[in-house]
Amino acid sequence: MGDYDNSTMRIRGKKPTGTQMVRADKVRMRWSRGVKTRRGHHGMKKGGAGVDLRHPFDRTAAGPPLAVNMAASSTLSAIHKVAIFGGTHGNELSGVLLVKHWLKHGGEITKPGMEVRPFIANPKAVEKCVRYIDTDLNRVFDSESLSNDRTGKIPYEITQAQKINSLFGPKGSKDAYDVILDLHNTTAHMGATLILENSRDNFTIQMCNYIQKSMAPEHCPVLLIEHPGVKYTTTRSIAKHSIGIEVGPQPQGVIRADILHKMRKVVKYALDFMNHFNEGTAFPSCSIEVYSVLEKIDYPRNNIGDLSAIIHPSLQDQDWKPLNPGDPMFISLDGKVTCYEGENTVYPTFVNEAAYYEKTQAFAKTEKVTLSAQSIQSVTLGSGEPPASLSTVF
Ligand SMILES: [Zn+2]
């Protein structure tokens, strides 16, 4: 794919000291809230739950210098290979059902010039209706797991990850699929959430912007999981561009029609976006508000690791709503309330997610950040047809 690493970002906190122009090679941020990062320093901060944190956008070690030029545009290759994963977690049934449907009736996801391949990512887990068999498939797409030089008994999901990497990757190569849409359900009250992994990927930010506008007035939040202390190696990370589509609330092993319908709409708009892009539509530069992960917060626990408190009723189902200093987070069975003691308002998400009890996570703290993307257009113009503009798309 194209040169999407040469993007330009403009990041604004919600209570900024001013607009933050970020050069990713130097990362000199004057962050006004949430996390204070020393300028030009890879400062580690002790988070509220004892998690060592780097700033979510401190990627000093990666990527070329970025030019601050919002007028710049990116010309990218057309999208040819798209995969839609369901059943990365076998008990998240909206994606399982949709992918099984599309495997038999693919007309709904057919677009000219694109191979759109529905795929059950963890078939054994789907068969048993469990999240995973041996280990979480959505955490094992690191280079060590994907290498073939392991000995001894290999966990099922590692074998499956290697198979997926050979079918849709190899990860990081020019042969990798252009886009993977990875379908998930959450037990949290998150609505139709788009999960973004790369704040410099113009194409994917533009796709999120298109989906958000298409879903309006329904809130379609974007969760950025780029924080090095929280980021994990997802199944979809083998593609050049990827979005996790996380829709809830829905219990594990259950299908709700409203949740399935929302997921289906997001997939439709994602494919529509790619189709418009391939047809030569010029997408002007845009900005989107994202919720950037700061840290995960565990439940209070006793000295043998059992929960000593649960999510407070005033936080339950309040994903994306502000959590202010002094607000209750947890309550013990004898009524003791634990309040949020941070300095700044944060926005919790994945509140009381069933799958995250094993991951010692009660919820994730995020902060609102604005990401900007350059204008993009595909290189496949030349048919004689004038390109559409975004205004003709909506
Ligand atoms: Zn999942």
UniProtKB/TrEMBL annotation:
Comp. bias intervals (Basic residues): 33-45
Keyword Plastid in annotation: no
The entry's keywords: Cytoplasm, Hydrolase, Metal-binding, Nucleus, Zinc
SUPFAM superfamilies recorded: Zn-dependent exopeptidases
Occurrences of domain Succinylglutamate desuccinylase/Aspartoacylase catalytic (ranges): 79-273
Database matches in Gene3D superfamilies: 2.20.25.160, Zn peptidases
InterPro entries: AspA/AstE_fam, Aspartoacylase, AstE_AspA_cat, Aste_AspA_hybrid_dom
Subcellular location: Cytoplasm; Nucleus
Swiss-Prot/TrEMBL cofactor(s): Zn(2+)
Source organism superkingdom: Eukaryota
Record-listed E.C. numbers: 3.5.1.15
Listed Pfam families: AstE_AspA_cat (PF24827), AstE_AspA_hybrid (PF04952)
UniProt keyword Heme present: no
UniProt-annotated stretches for the region Disordered: 1-20, 33-55
Residue span, AstE/AspA barrel-sandwich hybrid domain: 287-368
Protein family: Belongs to the AspA/AstE family. Aspartoacylase subfamily.
Official protein name in the record: Aspartoacylase
